[in-house]
Amino acid sequence: MATIKEVAKLAGVSVATVSRVLNDSGYVGAESRKKVEQAIEELEFYPNEVARSLFQKKSKLIGLLLPDIANPFFPLLAKGAEDAVNQLGYSLILGNVQDDVEKEEEYLKIFEQNNIAGVLSAVQGSSKRLKNIPLVNLDRVESFEQYAVHTNDYQGGMLAAQAMADRDPKQVVIMVGPKEVPGSFERLAGSIQIFKERDIAYHLFQTTSFRLEDTDETVELFFKEHPNADSVVASNDVYALAIMREAVKRGINIPDELQIIGYDDMPFSRLTYPGLSTIAQPAYEIGYKGAQLLCNCIENKPVKTKRIQLPVELVLRESLREKVEHE
Amino acid sequence: MATIKEVAKLAGVSVATVSRVLNDSGYVGAESRKKVEQAIEELEFYPNEVARSLFQKKSKLIGLLLPDIANPFFPLLAKGAEDAVNQLGYSLILGNVQDDVEKEEEYLKIFEQNNIAGVLSAVQGSSKRLKNIPLVNLDRVESFEQYAVHTNDYQGGMLAAQAMADRDPKQVVIMVGPKEVPGSFERLAGSIQIFKERDIAYHLFQTTSFRLEDTDETVELFFKEHPNADSVVASNDVYALAIMREAVKRGINIPDELQIIGYDDMPFSRLTYPGLSTIAQPAYEIGYKGAQLLCNCIENKPVKTKRIQLPVELVLRESLREKVEHE
DNA sequence: TTCTATTGTGTAACCGATTACACAAACATA
DNA sequence: TATGTTTGTGTAATCGGTTACACAATAGAA
Question: Mind telling me which residue stretches traverse the membrane in this protein (chains A, B) (predicted)?
Fold first, then answer.
């Protein structure tokens, strides 16, 4: 890789002039500019970001913290973030945290060591150690002063419950996501409100993690605790599908004997039959908008709102029964 | 963030001594070492990787090139890579290439600009521009001199075809993956060998991409071209599930009227019912082993084999009929 | 014409680490 | 005791950029 010195030499100017051409800063004569551009072309020069980053104390790298990239919600989010970030001249350092606080801390340290320009975080407490590094929370909201892109979990919980309530549920079970996930509580509250309003009884089933490895166990437990469930509001699509599978396996007809609604609208939720009805979360958008917001912060551009709320949406497929009118 | 200078001052030594303590290099007196360690502790100092990287012309970052992170094969691979790399003190820069050659080139440039230590690539031609940067190909094999971790696609193709051939297929259709994906051809060859040996007729159906967005279109085309297919060897799980869904929707019984086998064993392939029979690719392992191999190259450690081949495995679920013996 | 403002360019310090080299002290060996 | 080796430490150069500052040349204003 050629350096700025070599370019300067070939162009017959000083490194300062080359740098000015590169950054379009300060005054550069037409003559010099041309010579420098030619030299750059000839040497196929492109500046070393490490050197730049050292001086500026700020790199073109953005840290992306994910709870678990194997959870199908996050690749989509990552893709959105990557697209946005890439368009704006940044790149992502991937921090897969596996719901492990230590690993999260470790990554925040690594980020700092690399003069990261900002952090996109879909995990809990990332804000602590970072001093002057902008951070945007994705999906999960920490506190109200922080930047965040998220969805209305309360509304999502309501939508799911509403869809269920409209379909003559007999034995409702609401799966509640892990306590540490702030959204879980909101969703639950939304669902409960609807069921209370409609005067429909419900049971709760607490899941302890969103990790893909734990589904089998959880599903087994679910059927043990709620063998007569006829209407399930699941905490995400993975659990919904897992329950659906187990149900079909047991010869329970979906949706006649057991109807179910998921949460997220994972890409593969429409690949099953019966297709999973679910609350669609705009994972890609969350990543994309979050990255845009972060880049605006990084570059001190005016930011309209610190918090962007994206809508969720009911997606009806075959896992819910026909809607009962006049209720 | 404290610097090495501040540590030196607090400890009453020179920066060189601090550096020696940090890197356990050269001679350091017991007295000095203790003072430095105390200062480090007191200032919560950790070295700036950017400065280190500038001098060494080599960072602790590894580039990860993926064709499409939304394709569920790759998050798993990424997770494996991340786990390994992280254990060895490196971090990943995510390069999601979207099957776009330009974006790939762009990322390779970005990687160079960041003094990347090495590249893990699951995309085609990444080797061109890199001069002295080690690269390990994941899943896809380019040429025989290159480092790679991959599976035996030929064998995979055979396994899939064998499973099918053992189950009294009447109308076989083999879905062939995109031509650009080297493995596709191998798998096809493996499958064809089996069907030829068994004297079973088959049709081919060419898919043009592995991108998640294109499934609907492809499945529609598939049923138009092969309405009477009774045994499908799919090019991956996503297509297999998509076809299964469409079939069930059309009232075609799985597996009695149409049996199907996928490829990959995605996490959600076991969440459907009927569960998808498939050829399991060790995506996580590919990433993990690939990252280990790369790190060994980077650190000039002895490498036993340039190419690691991992086994694939037939996973039987409900999408295939019962095996017919005595054939 | 003279003075100031604008334009153009180079020199050198700087970012925060690593390390070659010089030098001194302590130790071992002859 | 003289000499060589090992140990310990600091100074300064270096990595590849950016930019403050100095200075010169030119243009414009008075």
Answer: none
Domain that holds residue B166: 153-281
| Total domain count, chain B | 3
With respect to residue A271, please indicate whether it lies within any of the assigned structural domains: yes
> Which H helix or E strand runs over B161?
helix B153-165
> H helices of chain A, where?
4-11, 15-23, 30-43, 49-56, 73-87, 101-113, 153-165, 182-198, 215-225, 237-249, 283-298
Question: Looking at the structure, do residues B220 and B307 belong to the same domain, yes or no?
Answer: no
Query: In a 10 Å sphere around its CB, with 0-12 CB exposed, 13-18 middle and 19+ buried, how is residue B131 labelled?
Result: exposed
Please state the rounded mean pLDDT for residues A127-149.
84
Which A residues between 103 and 162 have a beta carbon under 7 A from any strand D atom?
none
- CA of A247 vs chain B CAs: smallest distance (Å): 9
Asked whether residue B67 falls in the same domain as residue B107, the answer is yes
Q: Are residues A100 and A131 in the same domain?
A: yes
Q: What is the CATH number of the domain that holds B11?
A: 1.10.260.40
Q: What is the pLDDT of residues B108-129, one digit of tens each?
A: 999 999 999 999 999 977 666 6
Taking a C-beta distance cutoff of 8 angstroms, is the pair B17, B3 a contact? no
Residue A307 has pLDDT above 80, yes or no: yes
Q: Are residues A106 and A203 in the same domain?
A: no
Counted residue by residue, chain B has a size of 327
For residue range B130-168, what is the model confidence (pLDDT) as tens digits?
A: 778 999 999 887 777 889 999 999 999 999 999 999 999
Residues A221 and A180 in one domain: yes
Taking the C1' atom of every nucleotide in all shown strands and the CA of A49, the nearest one is D17
Cβ under 8 Å to A: B residues 272-301: 272-273, 275
Question: Is there a single domain that holds both residue B181 and residue B40?
Answer: no
- A115 within some domain: yes
Percent of chain A with pLDDT over 90: 78
**Is A56's Cβ below 8 Å from some Cβ in B?**
no
pLDDT number for residue B67: 92
